[in-house]
Design brief:
The complex is a heterodimer of chains A (about 280) and B (about 425). Chain A is about 70% helix and about 0% strand. Chain A is mainly α and about 280 residues long. Chain A has one domain. The two termini of chain A are about 40 Å apart. Chain B has helices spanning about 30-40, 45-55, 85-90, 125-135, 140-155, 170-180, 200-215, 225-230, 250-260, 330-335, 400-405; strands at about 5-20, 55-70, 75, 100-105, 110, 185-190, 215-220, 235-240, 240-250, 270-275, 280-290, 295-310, 315-320, 325-330, 340-350, 360-370, 375-390, 390, 400. Chain B has a 6-stranded mixed β-sheet with strand order 5-6-7-3-8-9, sandwiched between helices. In chain B, strand 16 and strand 17 (about 375-390) form a beta hairpin. The two termini of chain B are about 45 Å apart. Classes of the chains: A mainly alpha (about 280), B alpha+beta (about 425). The interface between A and B is large, with 44 and 52 residues.
Chain lengths: ~280, ~425
């Protein structure tokens, strides 16, 4: 069998040449996104008794604890909605962000055998880690639906804008995740930094409370945390008219998310070519 | 049919080796300290110059150029550290070259390791899909070839068992089977045949040969010269990162073997001594002696010991100049152990009428000093050579050399009967 030359794709390998073929390859390898994510999801709950239920139990219990501590004991304002719904509408994007960071930052290391032995656009690895976190996010979404039904809460028209805010959460996770993933290849210190960021971030982000309790003059500074914008956006969309969006802060957060996202891709692309040599 | 599918021009790859560190990766602390120190004390140049001198540049590949044409089966050979793996890694785009360029026409797939990306928790079936996708197959393609892959790997019964419960043989068979069904136009293979049982190895070789016959191009790295000889039509010889030679497989193998065998040096100077055991081998002598019209092979070597010790024996290996082993006779077979001694002992092998057993050609001889079932103390690879003239053995009157008729001389009795 002989292959006609005309049909053949031509590939040129040169120092610093990868850019042009990269985005085309990303499309060619699109099925790998799915397969890697599918692998991680399959593997995660193998040999567990209750399986996927773990994805529900963890956020649910955290929500219960937060509602009791911040709502019942500290008696923080709830923007006129049941406190569990207030907490859970923030818990959703926060858990997504935290899981993404954890999975993303170690994704390259735990796939180092792939990276040093096979070619594919490396961007697929951290991205599919985020896809895995997104699947968990969809699962926990079920709890929110349950809460809405339980409290007979009717969301307003704004709930249709939710996909937009999910997109922002995606970009924020991706941006920070890419930075951490590529730094982790060279500096394993980030293995210890990430759990710290996640733990710390839960308290400095408005998860257990509404960001309206932050004094007015500090709100802009508070919005330097990009998750503040994401969480406020989620609450604005889900809780309806009861929740007001602090626009300057939201725009600042949005800008930061954009910056993180693009710089993350830039840094990842820049360090990617040496991954196989240093990992 | 004969167009160039891979053109490598002036390829170079540089690595920077850090000497002072043992860890594979830098720690953040080190980088921070270095940066801070440079900011705080910019005048302290001399010191930082010293620390930068511990970084050494190392060219794993220098100025390598060659071409591969469609349908060629190219063996890439060379000693350890010659740059073979680096070349494959660049060709398969895992790492970038520092200099030069490569032009590749056609779909390329590389197999640097068997079972890359297999996940132990997943079942055989799941791993076929995962591994296929990692190697660049589409889901539709994998589905189409699924039955074929399973049949080739002979694992039908265990398809839904997690691969962590597989035997290592099953694991390797499944992994190779997925890779073998990749059907790329150019296949890059690194020593994957060193695994699996003999029967499966044969099957793999057969598969690769048939891939080659279909007009596809194979690049193959191996240390096993007889496999290269059997499989490849062309060869590329690398030496310390540079291209040494490039041409037909047999010529290059001959060159490689003659250069790597140590008899370029004076044989009398050859010595392999183990400091740990305080024992070694020295001064191999290989001679052919004529005896009643036939040739006897005398191979002898001196065993040295600093302390009185025994229980060791010498193994001798005869191979063709392409590195295929013909015979290996060690102390476990011949049971001639040295008594405890200090100083030197001569150890010799006598092969009567060797020209009646082996066909004409050049042969290489290696020696090893062994403590049976324990360890190899010293090794003199290709310590010497001998040449047997091509003799007329069979009635057709053609002199037999092993390149044409194989190494072993057999004289079958042939009968023809009407039935």
């Amino acid at each position: 069998m002989s292959y006609p030359t005309a049909q053949k794709q031509e590939l040129i390998i040169e120092a610093g040449r990868t850019e042009r073929q990269y985005w085309r390859d990303l499309w060619r390898y699109r099925e790998l996104f799915y397969f890697l994510a599918w692998r991680d999801i399959l593997v995660r709950y193998k040999q567990t008794v209750i399986g996927v239920a773990w994805a529900l139990i963890r956020p649910f219990l955290t929500m219960v604890v937060f509602s009791v501590v911040f709502g019942k004991l500290a008696k923080l304002p709830s923007e006129g909605v049941p406190y569990p719904i207030l907490v859970f509408s923030a818990m959703l994007p926060w858990q997504f962000f935290a899981n993404s960071l954890a999975e993303c930052s170690t994704s390259l290391i735990s796939n180092s055998n792939l990276i040093s032995k096979v070619y594919f656009p490396r961007l697929i690895v951290p991205t599919s880690a985020i896809v895995v976190a997104f699947v968990d996010f969809m699962f926990s979404g079920i709890i929110l639906l349950g809460l809405i039904a339980w409290y007979n809460f009717v969301p307003s028209w704004r709930v249709v804008t939710l996909p937009l805010f999910i997109g922002i959460a995606f970009a924020a996770s991706m941006g920070v995740g890419l930075w951490l993933a590529s730094l982790n290849v060279k500096y394993r210190d980030f293995r210890y930094i990430v759990p710290f960021i996640v733990q710390f971030g839960l308290y400095i982000s408005p998860v257990g409370f509404s960001s309206s309790i932050v004094p007015e003059e500090w709100r802009l500074v508070y919005s330097l945390n990009p998750m503040v914008g994401v969480i406020d956006g989620f609450r604005w969309a889900i809780l309806g008219s009861e929740s007001r969006l602090y626009w300057p802060g939201f725009i600042l957060s949005l800008g930061l998310v954009g910056l993180l996202f693009f710089s993350g891709i830039w840094y990842f692309r820049r360090t990617e070519r040496t991954f196989a040599d240093v990992i | 049919m004969f167009d160039t599918v891979i053109r490598v021009e002036n390829l170079g790859k540089k690595y920077v080796i850090a000497h002072q560190r043992n860890e594979r990766y830098a720690t953040l602390r080190d980088s921070l300290i270095k940066t801070t120190r440079n900011i705080l004390k910019p005048h302290q140049r001399p010191k930082s110059r010293i620390s930068s001198s511990t970084h050494e540049e190392f060219w794993a590949l220098k100025d390598v150029s060659f071409e591969v044409r469609q349908g060629d089966r190219v063996g890439i050979i060379g000693r350890n550290g010659a740059g073979k793996s680096t070349l494959l890694k660049i060709l398969s785009r895992i790492t970038e070259p520092t200099k030069g360029r490569i032009q590749i026409k056609g779909r390329i797939a590389s197999l640097l390791e068997v079972g890359t990306g297999f996940h132990p928790e997943l079942t055989g079936r799941e791993n076929i899909f995962l591994n296929g996708a990692i190697l660049g197959m589409s889901k539709v393609e994998i589905k189409r070839k699924f039955d074929e892959i399973v049949a080739f790997a002979e694992i039908e019964k265990f398809l839904d068992t997690p691969v962590k419960r597989y035997s290592s043989g099953m694991y390797v068979r499944l992994a190779f089977s997925v890779a073998a069904h990749l059907e790329p136009e150019i296949l890059i293979v690194d020593e994957v045949l060193a695994v699996g049982d003999a029967q499966f190895q044969k099957k793999c070789l057969g598969k690769m040969e048939s891939v080659g016959r279909e007009g596809r191009t194979i690049l193959f790295v191996s240390h096993n010269m007889s496999v290269v000889e059997q499989l490849c039509s062309k060869a590329v010889l690398l030496q310390q990162g540079e291209l040494r030679a490039n041409g037909s497989a047999l010529d290059i193998l001959k060159l490689y073997m003659s250069e790597s065998s140590s008899f370029k040096k004076s044989m009398q100077e050859l010595r392999s001594f183990s400091e740990m055991h305080q024992m070694g081998l020295a001064c191999p002598v290989i001679q052919l002696k004529e005896n009643a019209g036939q040739l006897d092979l005398e191979a002898s070597i001196i065993v040295e010991s600093m302390h009185p010790q025994g229980g060791v024996g010498v193994a001798i290996t005869i191979s063709t100049q392409y590195g295929s082993r013909i015979a290996s006779i060690g102390p476990r077979l011949h049971r001639k152990m040295l008594p405890p001694f200090k100083g030197k002992q001569a150890y010799s092998f006598h092969f009567p009428a060797i020209d009646q057993v082996l066909a004409g050609g050049d042969y290489l001889v290696s020696f090893a000093l062994l403590r049976p079932k324990v360890d190899r103390i010293a090794f003199l690879e290709y310590a010497g050579e001998f040449h047997l003239p091509a003799k007329i053995i069979y009635p057709n009157g053609v002199p037999c050399s092993y390149e044409d008729f194989g190494t072993v001389v057999l004289r079958p009795q042939i009968q023809i009967e009407a039935i």
